[in-house]
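Bench notes, bay 3.
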Amino acid sequence: MRALRILLIVVVILGGLFVIADRVAVNFAESEAADRLRGAENLPSTPDVSINGFPFLTQAVGGELDDVEIGIDDYEASTGKGTEKIRIDHLRANMRGVDFASDFSSATAATATGTATIGYGELMKATKSEPTDIAPGITAKVVGLSDGGDGKIKVSLQATVFGVELPQPVDVLSSVTVKDDNVEVVADGLPTIGGRQLAESRIRAITDFQQTIDELPGGIELDKVEAAKDGVEITVKGSNVELAG
């Protein structure tokens, strides 16, 4: 019995040491992966990297991680307009089946899903900044975007009728979708301004717009989008996503 107790104590101690070693190893790997990702994507700050699953060491020996979560704040994506950028407030991605080199110099995920949040202020960059003629004596421009409820965006227009600015913005509820690499906003209906029905092509030249969002980390792509309280929430996805290398 005494020998059995000693054996059990040894097993518990060894198990505890293994857990400690495993956690130390995973913390080191997360730090190395974060640094590599920051360098590969030219990020202004170090991203959050979490390697899930236990034990980590057996995954590391096999050269493939089951589940890796990555978080990047204030990521600047391309808009397709030269050097102009659009800021993604929060980019979160869940990577599955991540193959990596032993020195973490390269890593590729079999699949990736996640979310990206873009504030309404950033999305305003896609709208026309100057008043536009929409009818004889009537001009308008977009002055605000906000949550319209039920997944819609409220587009607020400031109109001027024969030189007199209307006291209140004209609001239009719009649908938001993903089309290719664009977030596309299209008005559900057309407003009446100054008591006049407007030509559809002219008013839609202001209310409807697209924002290209390109060159996301690892080549992930836009999937779906919906309006939320503080901005649009975009679902992203990808396959064979290169995290570094």
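Next record in the batch:
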Amino acid sequence: MPGPQAEERAPELEAFMDGLRKLRTGAGEPSFRKMAAKSGAVSHATLHLTVTGRRLQPWETVREFVRACGGDEEEWHARWQGVQLVLSAEREPEPTPVPPRWRSKRVLVPLALVLVAVIAAVVVILLPGEPGPPHPGDSSSFVADVTIPDDTVVKPGTQFVKVWEIKNTGTVEWKKRYLRRTDLPVAPGACRTPDRIPVNDTAPQGNVQVTVTVSTPPTAPADCKVFWKMVDEQDRELFPGNKPIYFSVLVRP
């Protein structure tokens, strides 16, 4: 649903904010205070402005919003740049009148370039597309939570082992791959884990179980929802268009 100030925003900005609101909804509608705690870099009020304000917030702020919701940073950065370009073009001052004999040289060419840039930016916003994997034929799918179902209640100051099962649904053999935590650096009061966990080599159409040891925060109550994306040895994300996998626990006394 558009925010209360939607009528005061450019359509491109409103569409961008609506996408961020849907991203937050898909992440379980975390409160802005929880998102700020996970970020550790911006306040909850600033994150709130990202989807309610009259202006496009700086990328650094939008990035923290996307990270807190487990979104794809590269995709959202491209969308942010497109909106920024459109809004910048709208703020372009009117050209100073010049004699007709100079108009084609001094005015029409810059305006044509701006128009091309605006059209390209609108296409990026309306048709962002999903980035493909770096290896053609590479694909994966989530199979099951082997241990610790979502919203399991755990004690503070303890450890548990989370296991997922995923499937190599493509034609590329998985070698030297990892799951990388997306909310780095980890905010105070969050569950602690290694930054990356190994994925055993997996043949096409094979299943693999991935294990991580989690330490819960010493104080309760707290909610831990940690997202992970598959990367290679160089930390390159391998499925940028896929949703992350995650675990979610409720830390209670």
